Amino acid sequence: MGKDRIFLSPPHMSGKEQQYIAEVFESNYIAPLGAFVNRFEEHIKLYTGVSNALALSSATAGLHLALRVLGIRQGDYVLASSFTFIGSVSSILYQNAKPIFVDSDESWNISPALLKEAIKKAPKKPKALIITHLYGQMCKLDEIIAICKEEGIYLIEDAAESLGASYHERQSGTFGDMAVYSFNGNKILTTSGGGMLVSENRTWIEKAKFLSTQAKENYLHYEHKEFGYNYRMSNVLAAIGVAQMEVLAARVVKRREIFELYRKNLSKIDEIQFMPEIEGSCGTRWLTTLTFDKTNPQDVIEALEKENIESRPLWKPMHMQPLFKDAQVIEDGTSQRLFEKGLCLPSGSSMNEEDVLRVCDTIKRILV
Ligand SMILES: *Cc1c(COP(=O)(O)O)cnc(C)c1O
C-alpha cells in the first residue's frame, strides 16, 4: 500500500467538539441561534479585542453584508487586492458595484503605492477597499489606513486566512471599519463552513444581523420594508467553533513551526524564496508558500502528487480571471509572476515532523 495522503490544510479537531454538539442536541436549539452562537461570538471578541461580532454561514456572506451595510450600491467602485481568493471580491458583484484591482508589492500583499495610483486613476471616487491578509500575513496597515483616512474610503479586512495574526501586537480584523474571518474546512479553525463579521461599530453589526436574518421588522407577523438574506450560523456549527477557539493560539504556533521546519530544510536551495513576513507583524503562516526561480511549480505539484501529497498553485490574481477581463486594474506584473512561480505546501496543524520531511525530500529530489 502507498503512504497516507498528506492534505493541504485539513480540519484539525480539538476533541471537545462532539461534547459541545451533544449539549446543543440536549438543548434542542438545532437552529441558527442559541447559546453556542453567542458563546462563539464572545470568544472571537475576547481573543481579538474587537467589540462586536456576528456569526454567519461564511466569510463571503460577511463581506456581502459589510458592503450592504456600508451602502455600496450599483455603479459604486470598490478597490481590492487582486492577489486573493474569489470569495474576497464576489460580494462586489452581488452589489452590482465595480471592482478596481490593485497589484501586490514585495510583501505579496496589496501595494500601498499602487493603491494610491488606483485611487488617482479611478473614474469616480471609490467608496471602499477590501484588503486580504494573504496566507495569514499582515498587510502594510500603517500606510493603507493613512491612505483610506485621507481619501475617506472605508477599509474592509478580509482576515479569512489570518485569524490569530497580529500587527504591532494588534489582531488582524481589528484595523478596518469592518472585517471577516472564515471557518471553512481548510482554514486555521473550521466549523465545516462558517464566518464571522466584526466591527467596532455596533450599529453596523446590528444592521448586519437584521439583514442576515431575512430583514424581519419587529412584529409577530413579520413585516418587511427591505430584503435581507439567510446568512446566520447554525448553533450546531457554532458548538464546533467554540471548541476550536479554545485551541486557536496553539494552532497558530503549530502552523508557524511547520513553516520554520520547511524553511530549515529548503532554504539552502538557491532558487526557493519563501513568502516574507513584514516587520512588526506575526502572521499565521496559514499555508507555507514559496516561489521557484527556475523550476516550473507544475512539475513539483505532479511529483508531490505521485507521493500522495497535495499541493496547489498560489491564488490566480483576480485581474487574470476571465470573469474580470473588463475590470480596471493597476498592476505591475508582481502577482502574475508570483502566480506563475509559486506553490502552496501542505501546512495543516495536524502534520508531524515526518510529514514535513516527506514533502521536503520529494521537492529536493526533483530540484537536483
Ligand atoms: C476562504 C476565503 C474566503 C471565503 O471564506 P468562506 O468562509 O469560505 O466564504 C474569502 N477570502 C479569502 C482570502 C479566503 O481564503
Helix content: 25-40%
Q: Mind summarizing the main beta sheet? A: 8 strands, mixed
Q: Taking strands numbered 1, 2, ... along the chain, how are they ordered across the largest sheet?
A: 1-9-8-5-4-2-3-13
CATH superfamily of the largest domain: Type I PLP-dependent aspartate aminotransferase-like (Major domain)
* CATH topology tier name of the largest domain: Aspartate Aminotransferase, domain 2
Ligand species: pyridoxal-5'-phosphate
Beta percentage is 15-25%
Give me the count of strands. 14
CATH A-level architecture of the largest domain = 3-Layer(aba) Sandwich
Order of helical and strand elements: HHEHEHEHEHEEEEEHHHEEEHEHEH
Give the overall silhouette. Answer: globular
Name the average pLDDT. Answer: 97
CATH hierarchy class name of the largest domain: Alpha Beta
Output the structural class.
alpha/beta
What value does the Rg take, in angstroms? Answer: 21 Å
Distance between the termini: 27 Å
Please, how many domains?
2
Describe this structure in words.
This protein is an alpha/beta fold and 368 residues long. The protein folds into 2 domains: 229 residues, Aspartate Aminotransferase, domain 2; 120 residues, Aspartate Aminotransferase, domain 1, CATH 3.90.1150.10. It is built from 12 helices and 14 strands. The strands form 3 sheets. An 8-stranded mixed β-sheet has the order 1-9-8-5-4-2-3-13, sandwiched between helices. Strands 7-6-11 form a 3-stranded antiparallel β-sheet, with no helix packed on it. Strands 10-12-14 form a 3-stranded antiparallel β-sheet. α6 links the parallel β4 and β5. α2 runs parallel beside α8, α5 runs parallel beside α6 and α9 packs parallel to α12. It starts with 16 loop residues before the first helix and ends with a helix. The mean pLDDT is 97. Pyridoxal-5'-phosphate (PLP) binds next to α3. Pyridoxal-5'-phosphate binds next to α3.
